[in-house]
Each structure stands twice: as structure tokens, then as C-alpha cells.
Write a structure and sequence with these properties.
2 iron, 2 sulfur cluster binding, binds FE2/S2 (inorganic) cluster, 16 strands, iron, mainly beta, 181 residues, 2 domains, 4-stranded antiparallel beta sheet, Rieske_2Fe-2S, 7-stranded antiparallel beta sheet, 2Fe-2S
Length: 181
């Protein structure tokens, strides 16, 4: 499969989204687990799977696969999108910097989880708060708690990252590597 596919499963009280890069995967939401697979052939008729390409972001060059970005390149007035990957499973995430502190969250608004805080052009930051572009929920830049808006009191889903030697690394044990688009 050449292009990733976003899959969202909605249950009565939960919505879970994953990005699938490979030929299959699964999504868990509430008590439900949805598994699926894709079969495809390349233009020359050969099976497209089983032939992993080099990582497009150069992670096969000996660099730590969990490195996300240089600290200085993480915006304070917006967000940087990356993907936390574990095998076939990918979670779209955002990174934000306040001074020398960085925080990362799943790129999903607690009010409507299918809505990304960063739709691709960077999330809105007003004052020091992240703002959802859809209904204006505001989130603290450190713990991701919503201070105002339709999901006040809820929090963004935190992803663990840390800074080492001027670079930001994904350190969340749920994932094995980070990718930038
Ligand atoms: S979807 Fe984010 S505030 Fe409604």
C-alpha cells in the first residue's frame, strides 16, 4: 500500500483513529476491536507487500528512530505534526514548545476526537494556550487540560517526549519510532 489510510471507529462513548501505512491493522475503541487488511498489487503486477522501503525520513541512516525534531524547530506559536508508530499502527501527534519545554499530544480534540487540533497548517496558539479551530476549546500548554470551551476539564491525550542534546525524542513506551511527513 503506497498511501496511508486513516481509519476511525466510533462507539457510543469513544472514538479512536489510527493511520495505517501497511497492508492491514486494527483499531480498538471501547470493547470493540476492528481488524482489517488490504491487498494490492504494484503496477507491474507484483505483490506490493513484503518489500519494505527505506524510511522516507531517513531513519535508516543510523539516526535514533525516536528522534522527532530539533528543539529549536518546534514552534511556540503553533504546532509541529509527527506520527508515533508502533508496527503497523500510527498515531497522529502534535508537538508544541514553551521556552525550552516541549509537550506532545495526540492530534485530536477531546470534544470531537475526529477533529485534529492541527489540521495541517499548525494549530492555533493564542496567548500561551492551544485553541481548537472548530469550536474554540482552549488547552493549557503543559498538561493539555481544557480551560475553556465545550470540553472544559477534559485533557488532550498526552504523548511522552523528552529533550536530549538539543533534539526532541519520542519516549512514550507505547511506540517504537517517530516519523515526520
Ligand atoms: S471539536 Fe474542538 S472544540 Fe469542538
Amino acid at each position: 500500500m503506497s498511501d496511508p489510510v486513516d481509519v476511525t471507529v466510533d462507539t457510543d462513548d469513544e472514538s479512536e483513529s489510527v493511520r495505517i501505512h501497511d497492508d492491514g491493522g486494527e483499531v480498538e475503541a471501547g470493547d470493540a476491536t476492528v481488524r482489517f487488511s488490504f491487498s494490492s498489487t504494484s503496477d507491474d503486477g507484483q505483490a506490493a507487500d513484503g518489500n519494505d522501503e527505506q524510511s522516507p525520513d531517513g531513519n535508516d541512516d543510523g539516526e535514533d528512530p525516536c528522534r522527532i525534531a530539533e528543539l529549536d524547530s518546534v514552534p511556540t506559536d503553533s504546532t509541529l505534526v509527527f506520527e508515533a508508530r508502533n508496527g503497523r499502527r500510527g498515531v497522529n501527534c502534535i508537538l508544541h514548545r514553551s521556552g525550552d519545554a516541549v509537550a506532545a499530544w495526540r492530534n485530536s480534540c477531546p470534544h470531537q476526537p475526529e477533529v485534529p487540533l492541527d489540521p495541517g497548517r499548525g494549530a492555533i496558539v493564542r496567548g500561551d494556550q492551544l485553541v481548537c479551530h472548530k469550536h474554540g476549546a482552549q488547552f493549557e500548554p503543559d498538561d493539555g487540560v481544557c480551560t475553556h470551551g465545550p470540553c472544559a476539564g477534559d485533557a488532550l491525550d498526552s504523548i511522552e517526549v523528552s529533550v536530549r542534546d538539543g533534539d526532541v525524542y519520542l519516549t512514550d513506551e507505547r511506540f517504537e519510532r517517530a516519523e515526520r511527513r
